[in-house]
Write a structure and sequence with these properties.
Strand order of the largest sheet: 1-2
Helix content: 55-70%
Number of strands: 2
Order of helices and strands: HEHHEHH
Number of helices: 5
Number of domains: 1
Radius of gyration: 16 Å
Strand content: under 5%
C-alpha cells in the first residue's frame, strides 16, 4: 500500500484544524474543571470535534502560511468551539474511560 506521503513525493500533509481544536479545547477545559481529565475522554472530545468540522490541510510552505492565517479567523475558531462543546457534552454524557461504552456520533 502506498502512503499519502509517498504519493506527495515525501511532502507531509497536515490538518491545521487539529491545532485550533486543541487550543480551543484547552480553553474549554480551563473553564470546565469538573470535566474528566483522563486521556481517553480528552481524545474522544478532540476526535468528535474534528469529525464535525472541515479539515484545512496544507502541503506546501505557501499553504502552511494560509492555514496559519486562517487559524486566527473568528469564524474558524467559533466553529471549533461549537464542535468542542458538542464533543464535551457527548463525552460527559457517555464517558468511555472505563472501557464499557462505544463512541458514536450523534
Amino acid at each position: 500500500m502506498i502512503s499519502i506521503e509517498q504519493e506527495l513525493g515525501g511532502m507531509s500533509m497536515r490538518n491545521y484544524m487539529e491545532e485550533v481544536v486543541g487550543e480551543v479545547f484547552e480553553e474549554v477545559l480551563r473553564n470546565n474543571p469538573d470535566f474528566c481529565q483522563c486521556a481517553k475522554c480528552k481524545q474522544d472530545v478532540v476526535a468528535i470535534a474534528l469529525s464535525k468540522i472541515r479539515g484545512r490541510y496544507a502541503v506546501s510552505p505557501e499553504g502552511e502560511i494560509l492555514a496559519r492565517v486562517e487559524q486566527s479567523d473568528r469564524q474558524v475558531r467559533a466553529d471549533a468551539l461549537l464542535a468542542v462543546m458538542q464533543g464535551v457534552k457527548q463525552v460527559a454524557a457517555k464517558p468511555r474511560h472505563d472501557g464499557t461504552a462505544e463512541l458514536t456520533e450523534e
